[in-house]
Batch of 2 targets.
Target 1
Amino acid sequence: MAGKKDKSDLSRLPKVDIVLQEKVLDVWKGSTLATAAVREVLEMVRKDAAAHLPTMVDPAEVASRAANLLQDRFAPQLRRVINGTGIIIHTNLGRSPLSEAAIQAVEQAARSYSTLEYDLDKGRRGSRHFLVREMLLALTGAEDALVANNNASALLLALTALSKRKQVIVSRGELVEIGGSFRIPDICRLSGAKMVEVGTTNRTRIADYRKEVSDKTGLLLRVHPSNFRVVGFTEGVTMPELVKLGEESGVPVVNDLGSGALVDVSKLSGLPREPLVSEAVAEGASVVTFSGDKLLGGPQAGIAVGRKEVIEKMRRHPLMRVVRPDKLSFAALDATLRAYLRPASLADELPVWTMLHARPETLDEWARPLVSKLEKKATKTGLTIGLGDSQATSGGGSLPDETLPSLAIRFEGPARALNSLQKRLRLGEPSVIGYLKDGTFFLDIRTMIIEDRDEICDALTRALLKT
Ligand SMILES: *Cc1c(COP(=O)(O)O)cnc(C)c1O
């Protein structure tokens, strides 16, 4: 509402108390946030008036602006996203979507009390650390297992419990950074272990480790190069060699697998093999660590399996209390691991495996009706829509450089229209995220097939209408 631009406008500004009585602010009653928001809006109005801009003096209008401000400011920040990037385990988008069974387990654990730390047989306190242990032993062949908050914390726990004030020997080829701020040297320092680097970036031999092993050595560390590949003149040490050295010198060997896999990826998809946890255990490592939300397809978690005496030492360490997962994670992890007990139906149960497994024909069948439905709407906005080849990846620091042939919905047209479409999709509800490449906008179908097609169609329709 435009008022007159003279000083009297300021005197006509509504009082805070009056504005607070407006109906739109009822939902915020009892919170000091509403008062603060109204003051904030009035302050803006005052500034407008001082700048001789149209000034609001109607209490309803001020209240409605304050309500909008509050709604925007406290809108949920964790929004749903439809992933059209073709990156299956997309760390920025929350890694693995959970299975239906895991979702139900989370819901039940959230809704009621549970046996998180209660032994029903004995009628007394139990421990959360044994909740999924039996399944982990069956699935990996290890003697013992524990679950931490994530793989980084499982590794930190291993380093702290086994090597604090001692040396950790690690190859210079494995001093990796796993995105964000997770760097092997940092985590070593944090644990209080002293890192001893051996070998070179591209070549490390067992003799390099042997030279450094002494009574000051706490453990030998192997880190799976999960998000990069060194090619050319390379030489590495095999796990059996490292384990043999560890045994000879009485030093545990920790193998950080990163993603790790409980079943052979190559059998369920066109991708090459990712190291199996069971193989890493069979090679004799004292501890093998891996993530719960990478190829495993479950919730954020870090799993450590291995030798009984070593895992027990980790479990008893005070840091275990700091890095323990909560009940919701345990519920989801339990249901996820359960799916691996029946590997034949894995691709039907776990979204990550559904996406890895999907055949090009399936993707085509899924997408074709969607594209036909949208064709006219796209043309109206000056864009063409079609189906075309795309390359999906497993992501999540597993199988770098390896792509899965995939299919994508492609939008072509003037750059401005494409940019606008991309933005509208991104800001829509749900948000739809794709990628631009060589002047074409792609929505990879492999990472979208687990979602409801009609809902995606609606989201695309809305975005096209506004483009
Ligand atoms: C991903 C990864 C980690 C970190 O795992 P989070 O579960 O994200 O904490 C550690 N090591 C390797 C080799 C990884 O690939």
Target 2
Amino acid sequence: MSAEKIPYKIYLSENEIPKQWYNVRADMKNKPAPLLNPGTHEPLKAEELAPIFCEELIQQELDDTTAYIDIPEEIQEYYKTYRPSPTMRAYHLEKALGTPAKIYYKFEGNNTSGSHKLNSALAQAYYAKKQGLKGVTTETGAGQWGTALSMACAYFGLDCKVYMVKVSYEQKPFRREVMRTYGAEVTPSPSETTAVGRRILEAHPGTTGSLGCAISEAVEAATSREGYRYVLGSVLNQVLLHQSVIGLEAKAALDKYGIKPDIIIGCAGGGSNLGGLISPFMGEKLRGEADYRIIAVEPASCPSFTRGKFAYDFCDTGMICPLAKMYTLGSSFIPSPNHAGGLRFHGMSTILSQLYHDGLMEAVSVEQTAVFAAAEQFARTEGILPAPESAHAIRAAIDEALKCKETGEEKTILFGLTGTGYFDMVAYEKYHNGEMNDYIPSDEDLQKGFDGIPKFPGNEF
Ligand SMILES: *Cc1c(COP(=O)(O)O)cnc(C)c1O
């Protein structure tokens, strides 16, 4: 088949949608560190997590050994409404760049939520419903996760309470209304509706919020209500597990044409799309069957991998969540109101953190105006209007393709195009008007965040 011209869109058929998720932890020699109880610093047991999370999701969270986990049929049924997502060949972009590199991207923006997040939202809503719960609470940054969860809750008949980072709530009124259309209740965070929100507002009056704050509020909202649990759209092992559908489909599509990527690139906020995209490829790498260069791309304004510490830290600003061992900027780090709202989390998936620590993947940080330049070049050539988060991956993919132009190497690049940017036009407007800046935190700024990382024996960093 290799003589055949690779199509612009490599589609799989409906029955090629994965029927099992792949759990990359099963192939990791160094397992991601367990979540710790913040009081005792002992690994958390399932019983301790049960007041916060759904039972079956806790099992998935703690399962480091089962390589394949069945996707329940009810979830598969909804996946069929928007999956398989296309794996695209960026012929037009390649031509515009004049590069010998071959560029592919896996496009996850083909659903109303506009991103990959629906893949995990459906799974989490399904398990909550199966457990007989009334509803779920969550945080949302840019709004994609909240939208995805609202859709999933509408489908499975669950109540949905969303704490939306205040800066996004104000910048993206349309996102908010999409969530309400699907039946969710949306509260700007930090808010007066929770004790932790009131505490944060008192300490930081006028704060534009952060994902860490919103998480604290959502957890409190769930644990203080009967029949509610908290769900999270990224970072957790279970979320990377659900997102493995991205990588499994991308790999199946490329395998049809005998294509092996040399470089795999994804933007990294909490690490879920990147973790999902790379999982099956990383599995091969871990088992010694193939080698890939894997690159995480993060904003220079929130550089968890490239400038963070590898340490146990809180996932939330209110310090009520379990401790996770990850690359972190400190849970008190509140990034500048950077437009890539989905990449503003201070920490990173423990799975990706371990893989990065073990030298199995790389990370780069990119500045905002360069990201929007890439977004615009991509929109003008490939036609898709990318989410600012996704454009971080585009930036790095273009940079790698331009290196190939210099060296003449015909590398194959695969990147994750996680979503569309229709709700991000205020950011695009700032870019077009030359009002966007490239804020980079100083070492002193970062030190303040590091000072808040908990200190206890075994947590040296
Ligand atoms: C949320 C989001 C991201 C970042 O989250 P990850 O968990 O790191 O994948 C990236 N792109 C889009 C479009 C998003 O909505």
